[in-house]
User: Fold this.
Amino acid sequence: MQTSENLHDDFLFIDDSDEEEILEGKGSEAWQVLIVDDDPEIHSVTQLALSDLVVLGQRLEYLHAYSGQDACQLLENNPDIVLVLLDVVMETDDAGLNVVKHIRETLDRQDIRIVLRTGQPGYAPEESVIKEYDINDYKTKTELTRRKLVTTVYAAIRSYQQISTVTESRQGLEKIVSGSATLLELHSIAEYSQGTLKQLANLIDQDVKCLFCARGQGIIEDADDLSFYIIAQQGFASLVPNQKLDTLKDEQISKQVKKCFTQKAHKYFNDSLYLYITKGGYRAVIYLTLKEPLSDIQKQLLEVFLTGASIGYENVHLFQKLNNAAYKDWLTNLPNRLEFVRMLDTFYKDGCENDVAALIDLNHFSDINDGLGQDIGNQLLIAVAQRLQSLHGNCKFARVGADVFGIIGSEDYLTPDILMDLFEQPFIAGEQKLPINACFAFCRKEHANNSGVIVLNQINIALNLAKKNREEHFAYFNPEMADETQWRLNMIRQLRNDFAENRLELWYQPQLALSSGKVIGAEALLRWRTIDGNYISPAVFIPLAEYSGLIIEIGDWIVHQACSQIKVLEEKSFENITISVNVSIPQFRRGNFVDTVLSAIQKHQVLPSKLELEITENILMDDPQVVIDALIKLKNEGISIALDDFGTGFSSMSYLQKLPLDRLKVDRTFITDIAQEGQSVIAETIINLSKRMNLKVIAEGIEKVEQQERLRELGCDEVQGFYYAKPMPQNEFLHFLKENS
Ligand code: C2E
Ligand code: MG
Ligand code: MG
Assistant:
């Protein structure tokens, strides 16, 4: 132990320090300093030496412990202690070092500064201890003059403050980093703004009220102008988001928010902040009330946070744009098909009982697009979208396909009649006034099933029926329709399978010259016998084969079959027999129909004139010029062309004239009652027409001799019907020919 005189010499005489700075200032808050020493005199001397000391604007306040154990206790109870002046040797030689361990290890306090003091130089702790436990200073008590003590304390407290500043910054940054991660997960502007306010309040660590303000356009649906809106808020109990800022009725806030926008800078007040967020042209202002002013560190952290928040704000806008691209139709700005499926999901799950979902399919839109150009086509679609949106009630709209629109709404406002009225007047597209028809399909809520995708499918089923229906251009979905669709799909699957397994056959129905009664040819007719031995009528399965596109492959096969049959007939010396095959629309739609027919003729080495193609008038409804061009090519190669079922279709006479025909076939419906008085007018007209057009004419469906006689009177050239022979398999047909020639 040092003698007290000695101590007094050094400690008690206040030697005038030149560290004026240290002694300046008066603060209301105080640094808590713990003096630990088993010698009570050291306590009073220290306190005296440090009296009046002000460090960084704050006084010192002392706590006293006289043993290591006391010190540990005091430290636990006083978390605000910043500095410990610690005697090394007290109740034991290492009592002081135990306190050090307690601070650093047990309490895990790395910020508290420690100055070790000892009476005897021999008790100095190892250098490793000083480093490991972050001890600020080690002094023998003799070294500690007042001036040295003041300097040591000052340095230690300043070091404490730096540590706590760094810690505060680090914690703030950690909040910012973890907050940003949370914000990154938010993809809607509303959620993001709300999240930003929450993180901001967390960072400032005060009970704050805040508003997130931005111009409404592009964020809030139907935001009419460039007014400021409240996108999110915290602490304004009665305020609903997405209102105009003016509804707040606070002149000051409105004025400052606008100022912040125009001056493009933050505004700090003691009791409030206006923070300006900007990135990539996306701008917002956050208004925030403060309970107490922000510290410098908080301001700096705030800047860091706002930089991140601005980037996030731009991102969330870009995300919204992507979202719009994925779920909105670029042309009409209506929801697209994907979004309509989501809307139908809601319709199915939460729709009102008398809600109905509808599809509207414009007729012949592609003609307008091709004929008048895409520009007019686009303008027409926009005009239709606008007219649809004039519907009353709370209807929701979408553009589901190129020329298909979707609507969901109450059945009070959404009926076939109401929709048809919308199409009464022509639409204006550019300079054009275009009269447009449409087909409509509906699904009532009670029939909606399972999910949006399925509901869309259901309405589509009804739409397909509506399109085929010649009288009414609308249909309501009902569950039987779905059964029908299922049946159709099964049939198509079975047909594909049976075709692959060679279970289709081509039968032949003889055609005769009426004058001589000689067989002049045969119509090849497809027969499908399923594995269980049943025949399915072509009237049933041909439409399915057409619908599925299967008719293209089957049609190729038929042409080859027919050609090989022609070859067989030649070989059997039935020289003048023509074989007619029926051709469907999809076969023409595929580009290489002409080539496949010609290559079949080539392959089987048959005379082209022995092959006849039967087309129906309806074939012309789709794309007349493509069909006409193909037929002219075939005709130029010598192949015959017949017009089947004449009189039942809707083709215009002008197209008929352009067709390179050889024969007209009078449909069975005009033959059935032909023998009755006054019932032969149409057949007569067709026969006369064909004579005028220099075509041969054949009547089909003759079942009775009277029909044959009447046709003879009318001057019909050729006949086909059950009266002469039913369609028959290939070998039977050969047999029939032998018998009848
Ligand atoms: P279609 O081309 O008008 O063929 C004539 C239909 O009338 C055949 O029916 C034939 O069996 C039937 N028929 C002929 N004479 C009489 C008669 O005196 N009385 C009655 N009641 N019917 C008679 P089928 O074979 O059932 O064919 C129906 C339709 O299916 C055909 O009408 C044709 O449009 C289509 N079809 C048949 N085979 C093929 C084919 O190979 N390809 C394509 N694309 N369509 C085919
Ligand atoms: Mg036919
Ligand atoms: Mg026919």
Observations:
- The first strand starts at residue 30 and ends at 36.
- The longest helix spans residues 146-184.
- Residues 644-645, 665, 667, 700 surround magnesium ion (ligand 3) (CB under 6 Å).
